């Protein structure tokens, strides 16, 4: 994989506080790469450092092998889609889109032509002569996208571009963004705190927390094989149980749940002592008896496509099960005792 | 349009009364009195004789009167006072803009907590009476004042620089008097400016200067225009700074009016006529500006 962006031990400090603790990442050419994490995790700071709006305290940022760490933002061949779009309010839509081309010295006729093509691509050609304030939020978002793509950047940076849109529009834009990325072949670096956004669009995701990258990988790997408690908890919903590892044999551990039930899960040799176990609520089946774990149903929550069954394990821990809402599913009544069957690989032992 | 609620119409008149009274008493009435006086005849002990006359305007514009036997001739003395006043006010406005814009920018880019302190500091000198401040400026600038003594003790000049009683002194005085009127509206405009736009411009390959020219200045322009008006208009009619800092050669409109109204050789109709001419000039300039802005917007 050819790297579009390479971060080497990038550190950011503001006075005494450290926002980023030595981040090292490689973002491939033509990749849709997402920086995902809660607010304050350093993902936006990292993006702003790639764009050049924040200095690099330590470390290096390489763009196609070239060190750009100290360069002014206007000398970096990357463009940004800003969170609140930052469209120039006194310029028409087409002048906004053509601004970068004008700054690069393209003549009036060619830049209007290219800006027109960009607007056509985002279905806004009819709005070329309007002012940004005369457009809806979704339209402004697309103008921001067209403006950032017009100068043909090597890398496009997107800072939570969908967070100001309503749900329907956000879902439509996800598909559109992904398509746009595939068509243009430009590397997208996308910042979001929305894990669903990250999972649906990304080729790879870097999950960040407290100024550190916790895990990097494709969406499926991040979701199904979280490396630690933070990732398991932050991505999707999960049941986190504190367990005792009894023995490890042939790559499988036998662990004791809070209620005394014993189950098997994959583990590295030498694992011992107390650990956290993650079990996704949709990777379980419910039966009236049998199963590796026994629990009592407390409440059934209707979620439309799904049913959430809130149960309590014998040891007192709350435990969620998700069932698809279908006529074939027998819904257990509150108060009944049930057996829970784990799917293959459903239980994962986590490093803390 | 929301429908009017019953009773709203009957409340309208009493609610608008304070506004009307305010505009009437403080604006229409004084300006009316001034305009009226400019068309009356001079009474030599001050005041006016209630006889209609155009002699005040005649005196302003013509050397040999419109009503004499000989052909009328333009009188340049007063027109040149106007010209000098306009020029002084322009220079004072430019000085205020050059210092005021960076100052306003500096304050507006401080953290929100400290902005109030900076604004407060800007206004502190204005708690002192304008007369006292202008006199102090004279003390600072005169031959034996700190400026000249300092320059001489440093060996930079041999003799005191003649600053007092020059155009420069008047310009400095006007600049000093009206600087906050430039800083405050520009500050208000810069504070509303979205700095993400500067980042967006830099991201799209604009240099700092281009960003200032293409993005920042067009967006804070209303503040700059307001500041320039607030400095230019009072500078044009100022009389304290020219009186106290200038000499006979720096006579300005404000001093001319002052002399006509308060002086022992005063001529009230003439003073009023000068004020009317000044006001008309300013109004024409404002209307011309407003029209050019509207044209720009609709273009």
From TrEMBL, chain A:
Keyword annotations: ATP-binding, Cell membrane, Membrane, Nucleotide-binding, Translocase, Transport
What reaction does this catalyse? ATP + H2O + polyamine-[polyamine-binding protein]Side 1 = ADP + phosphate + polyamineSide 2 + [polyamine-binding protein]Side 1
Gene Ontology cellular component list: ATP-binding cassette (ABC) transporter complex
SUPFAM superfamilies xrefs? MOP-like, P-loop containing nucleoside triphosphate hydrolases
InterPro entries associated with the record: AAA+_ATPase, ABC_SmlMolc_Importer, ABC_transporter-like_ATP-bd, ABC_transporter-like_CS, Mo/tungstate-bd_C_term_dom, NA-bd_OB-fold, P-loop_NTPase, PotA-like
What is the enzyme's class at the highest EC level? translocase
Mind listing the GO molecular function terms for this protein? ABC-type putrescine transporter activity; ATP binding; ATP hydrolysis activity
Please name the Gene3D superfamilies in this protein's record: 2.40.50.100, Nucleic acid-binding proteins, P-loop containing nucleotide triphosphate hydrolases
Residues forming the ABC transporter domain are 5-235
Q: What is its EC number?
A: 7.6.2.11
Q: How does it assemble?
A: The complex is composed of two ATP-binding proteins (PotA), two transmembrane proteins (PotB and PotC) and a solute-binding protein (PotD).
Q: What does this protein do?
A: Part of the ABC transporter complex PotABCD involved in spermidine/putrescine import. Responsible for energy coupling to the transport system.
Q: Which family does it belong to?
A: Belongs to the ABC transporter superfamily. Spermidine/putrescine importer (TC 3.A.1.11.1) family.
| Protein name (Swiss-Prot/TrEMBL) | Spermidine/putrescine import ATP-binding protein PotA
User: What is the protein's species of origin?
Assistant: Rubellimicrobium roseum
From TrEMBL, chain B:
Membrane topology label: Multi-pass membrane protein
Q: Quote the InterPro entries the UniProt record gives.
A: MetI-like (IPR000515), MetI-like_sf (IPR035906)
Q: Where are the transmembrane segments?
A: 12-40, 86-107, 119-141, 168-190, 223-241, 268-290
Give the domain of life. Answer: Bacteria
Q: Name one Pfam family in it.
A: BPD_transp_1
**GO biological process assignments:** transmembrane transport
One Gene Ontology cellular component term attached to this UniProt record is: plasma membrane
Residues in ABC transmembrane type-1 domain copies: 82-289
Arranged from A to Z, the UniProt key words for this protein are: Cell membrane, Membrane, Transmembrane, Transmembrane helix, Transport
Q: Where does this protein reside within or beyond the cell? A: Cell membrane
Which family, according to UniProt? Belongs to the binding-protein-dependent transport system permease family. CysTW subfamily.
- Listed PANTHER family: INNER MEMBRANE ABC TRANSPORTER PERMEASE PROTEIN YDCU-RELATED, INNER MEMBRANE ABC TRANSPORTER PERMEASE PROTEIN YDCU-RELATED-RELATED
Descriptive protein name? ABC transporter permease
The organism's taxonomy opens as:
Bacteria, Pseudomonadati, Pseudomonadota, Alphaproteobacteria, Rhodobacterales
